[in-house]
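Case 119 in the screening queue. Each case pairs one protein sequence with one candidate compound; here the compound is iron/sulfur cluster. For every case the pipeline is the same: read the inputs, emit a complex structure as tokens, and attach any notable structural observations.

Predict complex for case 119.
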Amino acid sequence: MAKKGLILCVCQGTCPSFKKMDTFEVLNAIRREKIVDFVSLHPQLCADDGDQYLKILLDNKDIDKLYVAGCDPLMQQKMFRDAFDAVGFDKSKHIAFDIRNKTTEEAVAAIKEAIKNNP
Ligand code: SF4
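Case 119 output:
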């Protein structure tokens, strides 16, 4: 069955761009509303092990939408391209959006908006 999931990527948790939000509370807010099938947190998706994470996750062909809240969408598209290609994941199923410099409430609102606009 097709699944939708959210990954929060936070530049190792050390980048000032993610200091205004409580990342676990962001994930909890989305979980509580059950608007995706799973949520997860990755410290650095653009590192080699992030590539591995994406490949292992997406090798499960049931994933129909992958929302990635992190940095600039165009950067995400470039950085994840090889991992998507390696497992044949259709790039149009990757919904990327930027939550840097947002508070917890602003990040939750941005995620909900992105999911609503790309159901
Ligand atoms: S993918 Fe973006 S948000 Fe994630 S660690 Fe790399 S630069 Fe930071």
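Case 119 observations:
- The mean pLDDT is 96.
- The longest strand covers residues 63-70.
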